[in-house]
Amino acid sequence: MDFKILGPIEVRTSLGRPIALGRRKQRILLAALLLNPGKAIPSRRMLDWLWGERAPATAESNLYTYISALRKVLGSPSRIEAGSNGYVLHVTPGEVDVTLFEDLAAQGQRALSEGRHDVALERLTRALCLWRGESVLEELPLPAPLRCEAARLERLRATVVDASLEARLALGLHGEMLADLEALTSRDPLNERLRAQLMLALYRSGRRADALTVYQNARLTLAAEVGIDPGPDLIRMHQRILADDPALTPPPAVAARRVPAELPIGSAAFTGRAAEIARLRTVLTSASGATAISAITGAAGVGKSALAVHVAHQVAGRFPDGRLYVDLHGSTPGVAPLNSADVLARLLRSLGDDTAGPPDVDEAAARFRSLTDGRHLLLLLDNARDAAQVRPLLPASPTCRVLVTARRMLTSLEAVSHVRLGVMAEDETSTLLGRLIGEERVAAERRAARAIVRLCAGLPLAIRIAAARLIARPELSLRALADRLAVEDLRLSELQSDDQAVRACFMMSYRSLDAESSRMFRLLSLLGGAAISVAAAAALADRPEPCTADLLDHLAETQLLEACGHTRYRMHDLLRLFARERAREEDTEEDQAQAVRRARSDVWTPPAQPATYLTARG
């Protein structure tokens, strides 16, 4: 969710849809909370802000009504928490434009003081772009305490404008800033610093006479309006221009530093995942003493990449030095995973290092860390194979953030925030289907739409493929597609369109298994969709229980099985159909029948634990 108060107050959902905020006092109340995020505001103070000394007898009940209405429109009761010290609005980093503005302003002013004028201009420009009007909470009448905070922000804006002009002059951009300076001095004719900057820009543009005219006009205006002479800085600029001071010679224009913006386009139909989005945004935008890394893991087709791209676009404004993206092809059907050296060479080129990449991975990784040091960068490493592929690609600067998607848990990477993504709830997948094919089409065949969603079993990839089938064939009814999907032996064949196929995604994970694990995976499909215990799986595979537990854990790590507690496991419906297909292809009917008889027998005796197995896997 995005809260905007640098201009008219506005709240938008994570998908960019505006939220209606209701009556005027309700908007003032939200403004007060937004100007004090994370701080408790006593009810008495809120009542004073809303009504002053003329509070009606119903003021307290009205306040509670406004708070309840805000909780409802903001979509989560936990957003506004009532405590003993008052009401608190909880926001995540980057949600409020004010905090982002202040962060960028501080970064820009610090870079300016350090002489890094190109970095300063980038930060300050992005800060100013957050303003959508001339004042904070424009067109909303505010009580005096809130007007003081709004005035502070407007003064900070003026400081940022001044600093950005200084950076532009230092970079030799005097020609392109003349129009801005003339407009600013016209609005603020008593601002002597603006006059001096305009004089310098005109002089450097070869307009010496115009620069001297600006001084004469400033002298007359100051005398007429406030009865004073120009200050020492303006006088000094006038004297230096009269003397053609060589120090006023413009510096050579500095080429803008390359700022990569490589994120793929986000999905306009993205749906749900509110808790995961909030958690990822918090990690990616919070202050940290080290590089913050978030890893999204989950089964094939569960929507890891879509979530990562969606969140990356939401926080992109916090990374003015660039947003880098690489598909590592760790689980792409028909494509070999990228090696780390090639990825590093690509990342270095994206950051402006066009020299030939060093042949050694360690050397290339060191160059990448040097190039990213101190830069506010977001790196999205999509579709990673394992931790070994990712490790050399990580920057070391605390100003950088990394977002990784992978099927396997990347547990050997240190200081990683792990987000395990499961299937979507049925109402979310219903919403997704409607956004993809149109709400009218879903409304016309609502029961069939529910059947399609249920048969796709919460897998976003399956929903998207089903939607693609319906879009490609407008004459195909939802009922006809639901009937096709209802035939289990045909379902996976129906869930493929163009270059997307559920079966192909599953096959990549399956091919990574060793012989024992793949056999266990196939046999588990023979018992239907119920959760299975370690003991039942051991009987099914005719293996000792310790070996079986190890195999089941391995399948869970590769996202082909889901652990339900300590000793029970469940297989996703579509994975079960895929495993059954593989069993028909790779196991004899007799082997399958014997496995089922063992699992249903009350007299099966587990075999002894093989020593070779313990050596191989222990």
Textual characterization of the structure:
The chain is α/β, with parallel strands linked by helices. The protein has five domains: 1-157, Winged helix-like DNA-binding domain superfamily/Winged helix DNA-binding domain (Arc Repressor Mutant, subunit A, Orthogonal Bundle), CATH 1.10.10.10; 172-253, Tetratricopeptide repeat domain (Serine Threonine Protein Phosphatase 5, Tetratricopeptide repeat, Alpha Horseshoe), CATH 1.25.40; 274-421, Rossmann fold; 426-504; 513-617, Arc Repressor Mutant, subunit A (Orthogonal Bundle). It is 53% helix and 9% strand. It contains 28 helices and 14 strands. It has a five-stranded parallel β-sheet, with helices on both faces. Strands 12-14-13 form a three-stranded antiparallel β-sheet. The longest helix has 27 residues, at 144-170. It is elongated. It starts with a strand and ends with a helix.
Explain the layout of strands and helices.
Elements: E1 2-4, E2 10-12, H1 24-34, H2 43-51, H3 59-74, E3 80-83, E4 86-89, H4 97-113, H5 117-129, H6 144-170, H7 178-187, H8 192-204, H9 208-225, H10 232-242, H11 274-285, E5 292-298, H12 304-315, E6 323-327, H13 340-350, H14 361-372, E7 378-384, H15 387-390, E8 401-406, E9 416-421, H16 426-437, H17 439-444, H18 446-456, H19 460-472, H20 478-486, H21 488-494, E10 496-497, E11 500-501, H22 502-511, H23 515-524, E12 532-533, H24 534-541, H25 545-557, E13 562-563, E14 568-570, H26 573-586, H27 589-600, H28 611-617
Parallel strand pairs: 5-8, 5-9, 6-7, 7-8
Antiparallel strand pairs: 1-2, 3-4, 10-11, 12-14, 13-14
Helix pairs in contact: 1-3, 4-5, 4-6, 5-6, 6-8, 7-8, 8-9, 8-10, 9-10, 11-12, 13-14, 16-18, 16-19, 18-20, 20-21, 21-26, 23-25, 23-26, 24-25, 24-27
